[in-house]
Amino acid sequence: MAIKDTLIEIRERNGLTQAEMAERLFVTRQAVSRWECGDTQPGIDALKLIAATFNVPIEKLLDMPLQAVCQSCGMPLADASLLGTEADGSPSEHHCKWCYANGDYLGECSMEDMVETCVENMAGPEAPFTEEEARAYMESLLPTLERWKGAAAD
């Protein structure tokens, strides 16, 4: 589903007019209208705010397929070789091998530490994301993951 259609769905599901949605997102009604018409798209900061305000996975806004991701770092778990292990040695269905082994998280870190680690791996000259884009994405994704739900970034 295109971003414009997702935004309409979110607005209608919440029973909001374009003006009411705009007020919640600190933008103009015209901005919401242009997004919904497909004339423009919200920037990364607006997408992050939409995801947080309406409790929508950022992947849905970006029209990315929802897939199994590590519940610590958000890395897609598309390949079994990436899975961590449970205490009994079986593969973890919910965590990658860099975050989880033997039924426990590897090392202590704050959500902010995890953001920094992920940004280092996602951004750079050869990477598809700028540092700002990677940081905004991770800051919106991590609070939705099992390890970080309810945790405040340091």
UniProtKB/TrEMBL annotation:
Xref: CDD domains: HTH_XRE
Molecular function per GO: DNA binding
UniProt entry keywords in alphabetical sequence: DNA-binding
Entries under InterPro entries matching the protein: Cro/C1-type_HTH, Lambda_DNA-bd_dom_sf, Zn_ribbon_dom_put
Domain HTH cro/C1-type: from-to ranges: 7-61
Gene3D superfamilies (alphabetical): lambda repressor-like DNA-binding domains
PANTHER family per record: DNA-BIDING PHAGE PROTEIN, TRACRIPTIONAL REGULATORY PROTEIN-RELATED-RELATED
Protein name: Helix-turn-helix domain-containing protein
